[in-house]
Write a structure and sequence with these properties.
Elements lengths: L1 H30 L3 E8 L8 E8 L3 E8 L5 E8 L15 E4 L4 E9 L17 H8 L7 E7 L10 E4 L1 H11 L6 H15 L8 E8 L5 E8 L4 E8 L3 E9 L11 E12 L5 E5 L5 E4 L11 E8 L5 E8 L2 E8 L4 E9 L8 E6 L2 E6 L3 E7 L5 E8 L10 E10 L4 E9 L12 E2 L3 E7 L2 E10 L16 E2 L7 E4 L1
Antiparallel strand pairs: 1-28, 2-3, 2-29, 2-30, 3-4, 5-8, 6-10, 7-9, 9-10, 11-12, 12-13, 13-14, 13-15, 16-17, 17-18, 18-19, 20-21, 21-22, 22-23, 24-25, 25-26, 25-27, 27-28
């Protein structure tokens, strides 16, 4: 009995000691959160008056919200809170409402267990449903229990490309599912894919090949499928949702002298309609039987063929579409008035895009920030009539040795009329540690960049004192991290 009592007391004392130590450690951390400059290039005094706010957590129970204002001396203020239940931080990520593609460049499917002769009820991945006849033809030449590979011309089976439409599930697919009383979603996918296929009618390039590898089990089921396409024609699309429907911008990248069903960039409108259930609840669905091309109109038609859609967005007041395109080697912003589908503005952003194949686009409270893969950027400011004016262009050309082991993400910005501040979160690469491989880990610090009309003036990497708190082999769950939000827990202001 005495031994049990002594053991209980020892355990109790140890537990209290741990709690006290944890309290002291956390108190010190939350009262004295600081940011340590790791490496920098340029003049840090140019950041005086700039405030970076960082929100970080430990296992969603402990929350630090820290505002760091640059100056001499810098001012750092932290609000710390403890939550008995895990708090929720919300990253509102909505993929584009509709995305289109005409090829499945390389895709492996395992564990299918499908029987292609069962046309109505096969379990083909929905993006391959329109290729059912071609795949069934290949499967007919495979013995049970064998693997087989065949290379064929895509044009032997198709005159026009089968289009795969990916639809944002949370809104349209789920609503359709409800409308149809829970029937299989395969019908929806099939109908939508066929609707876009027949509407766009993109001719298949004659030299395009597809390689199909299949393996059957001994019962004749397809259990593995590898599908590789040597694509020559590429379909690019971007979309944005409005109250009435979806504007879908589409462009084609085709071989020289190939046939095409349209030139440049076209914008299609896919209406949405409301259906009501027996209780009177309304559900929004896609009216994909009534797709129509709304841009270009006869007044805005262009002779250019080398166009690629990069981005399309809705203006803040909902009256215009902001479209960014690559056109004949340059990058343009086109503002389109929705009521008339006519151009309000066409502004060249980058004169010559070089080897760039994509453009990053971000909107920040009246500002439009775009960047290319070669580190060039452009900052535009919105005017009263929804058009934009270029206020700063340049290159983010400062490189820190720090970046050899880290990569930047989720950049936020602030503009004071003369100087642009870019603040990014970063992740550090972590090697194998204690037999546990960790590919990467977050930091509660940030990287600050300052750019003006003369070019990049400063770049500095800052670690947080929170980075050492709770650090264990499990760098995901038991280390301090930035809160999971669209801004990665960062904001910046002058």
């Amino acid at each position: 009995m005495k031994k049990s009592t002594a053991l209980f007391l020892a355990t109790l004392i140890a537990g209290v000691a741990v709690l006290c130590y944890g309290h002291i450690t956390l108190s010190a951390a939350h009262e004295k959160v600081s940011f340590i400059l790791v490496e920098s290039i340029g003049d840090a005094t140019l950041a005086d008056g700039l405030t970076v706010t960082v929100s970080a957590h430990l296992d969603y129970h402990l929350l630090w919200e820290t505002a760091h204002t640059f100056g001499d001396p810098p001012q750092t203020n932290t609000e710390f809170s403890f939550h008995t239940s895990k708090f929720v931080s919300e990253r509102i990520y909505l993929p584009e409402p509709i995305g289109l593609s005409n090829t499945r460049y390389s895709q492996y499917y395992g564990g299918l267990g499908i029987f292609l002769d069962d046309v109505e009820n096969d379990r083909l991945p929905q993006e391959l449903m329109q290729s059912h006849d071609m795949l069934r033809d290949v499967a007919s030449r495979i013995e049970n229990g064998q693997q087989y590979t065949e290379v064929m011309f895509f044009s032997d089976y198709f005159d026009i490309y089968p289009i795969h439409a990916s639809i944002r599930f949370d809104t349209f697919v789920a609503n359709y599912y409800h409308e149809n009383g829970g029937e299989s979603l395969s019908r929806l996918y099939k109908e939508v894919n066929e609707a876009f296929t027949n509407y766009l009618r993109i001719p298949v390039s004659k030299g395009e090949q597809v390689t199909v590898t299949m393996r059957k089990d001994f019962a004749g089921n397809i259990v593995e499928l590898n599908y590789i396409m040597t694509a020559e024609t590429y379909l690019h699309s971007r979309s944005v949702e409005t109250d009435d429907g979806i504007y879908l911008a589409v462009s084609l990248e085709v071989p020289v002298d190939s046939e095409t069903s349209f030139d440049g960039v076209i914008i299609c409108f896919v209406p949405t309609v409301l259906v009501f259930d027996e209780q009177g609840y309304a559900y929004k669905t896609l009216d994909y039987h009534n797709i129509q091309t709304v841009y270009p109109t006869k007044d805005t038609e262009t002779e250019h063929k080398s166009h690629t859609i990069c981005s399309i967005a809705l203006s803040d007041d909902g009256s215009c579409l902001n479209m960014i395109t690559f056109e004949d080697g340059d990058c343009y912003l086109t503002i389109i008035e929705i009521d008339t589908m006519s151009d309000v503005q066409k502004l060249i952003i980058f004169d010559g895009i070089g080897e760039a194949f994509s453009c990053e686009v971000n909107y920040f409270e009246g500002l439009l920030y775009t960047s290319l893969g070669d580190d060039r950027f452009a900052l535009m400011e919105r005017t009263a009539d929804n058009s934009y004016r270029l206020v700063l262009t340049g290159t983010r050309n400062y490189r820190l040795s720090f970046e050899n082991g880290h990569y930047l993400q989720n950049t936020q910005l602030a503009w004071n009329g003369e100087r642009l501040a870019l603040v990014s979160s970063y992740r550090r690469y972590v090697p194998d540690h204690g037999g546990v491989y960790i590919s990467e880990a977050s930091s509660c610090g940030f990287v600050l960049e300052l750019i003006d009309s003369k070019g990049q003036q400063y770049k500095g990497a800052y670690e947080s004192s929170l980075d050492v708190l709770g650090r264990t082999d499990d760098m995901y769950y038991y280390a301090c991290r930035l809160i999971d939000s669209n801004t990665d827990g960062l904001s910046v202001s002058w």
